[in-house]
Design a protein that fits this description.
Layout: H1 7-10, E1 21-25, H2 47-57, H3 61-66, E2 70-75, E3 78-83, E4 85-86, E5 91-92, H4 109-113, E6 116-121, E7 124-129, E8 140-143, H5 144-148, H6 153-176, H7 180-196, H8 205-221
Antiparallel strand pairs: 1-8, 2-3, 4-5, 6-7
Amino acid sequence: MKRNISLEEISDGRLYNGNDMVKADSHGCRGCFKCCTGMGNSVILDPYDVYSLQKKSGKGFPVLLAEGMAELNVVSGVILPNLKMTGEDERCVFLNQEGRCSIHDSRPGVCRLFPLGRYYENGDFKYFLQTGECTVPNRSKVKVSKWIDTPDQKKNHDFVCRWHYLLNDLEAKVDGAEDMDTAKKLNMFFLQTFFMDVYETERDFYGQFEGRIAVFEDFIQNLPK
């Protein structure tokens, strides 16, 4: 989720690369799961998250949506999916009774990052440490790439950049659409292309994503001017 706020207010003032050490290691969280409750619709899913969840559960995004594991919300004019929170304490649907993540090896990118964030600039991004988010005391330094623990991190880094700037462009197009019908068509085709059409989990994600990018860009090019 984007935040329009000064880095000085929420971070230690540093920007990190994947090979840098950062004080983020919470040692298994020691029974804490505050960051898995009360998150509203902020755990936004990207296509790689959806692919990973499908690979883990055997359920495509339409099923996750129908079974109440995910939901749709409008973010900056664009319809995006997020993990659903349930109950009085708004627990993540994948948080088990012991307060542990039941999909930890396939958890979304937002969860992998925490308490880190991404700072985008000049077509790329670096990481920053959110100093007021994680309440676990005495965190240790850990290599950023080890903390994020995502396979094929170079490919994933490139994907994250591509996705971020695609969303930026889509937000501008939706905001600049001359009528509501065009904005709705953009949103519906976007949602169908990147989320509702089920991924093939036996195939590499990144190749499928590039194919869907091409389909979506072709759709935009052929929209009536």
